[in-house]
Amino acid sequence: MSEKMNETALMALKIAFSYMPKAIEVTKYEYGDRYQKVLDHIEAVRETLLINDVDPDEVDGDINPESTPNSSY
Predict the structure, then answer these.
(1) For residue 23, which of 5, 55, 45, 1 has the smallest C-alpha distance?
(2) Radius of gyration of the chain (CA)
(3) Using alpha carbons only, what angle is made at residue 67 by residues 65 and 68, rounded to the nearest 5 degrees?
């Protein structure tokens, strides 16, 4: 998938991504045998965000600016 999403779909993806676990939180202990599948899903969403010129690491700040700490740089 290399084409850009429309703004409504992209906003929906950003919201969903903000509720997904962070890759570092996904362990075999917590997710059992499906942990690799969860990691693959997270990576697929990150790649789609990047294709659409969205920094996945900044999504939480875009969706929930009131609960995001100020930048220190």
Answers:
(1) 45
(2) 14
(3) 65
Q: How confident is the model at residue 65, as a pLDDT?
A: 80
The torsion region of residue 5 among left (phi > 0), alpha (psi -120 to 50) and beta comes to: beta
Dist CA 52 CA 49 (whole Å): 5
Amino acid in the structure at residue 56 = P
Q: Cα–Cα distances in Å, from 16 out to 2, 60, 72, 73?
A: 20, 10, 27, 28
Task: Please state, in angstroms and rounded to a whole number, the distance separating the CA atoms of residues 32 and 10.
Answer: 30
Helices (H), 20-68: 28-31, 35-51, 59-63
Q: What is the pTM of this model?
A: 0.80
- The answer, yes or no, to whether residue 22 has pLDDT greater than 90, is yes
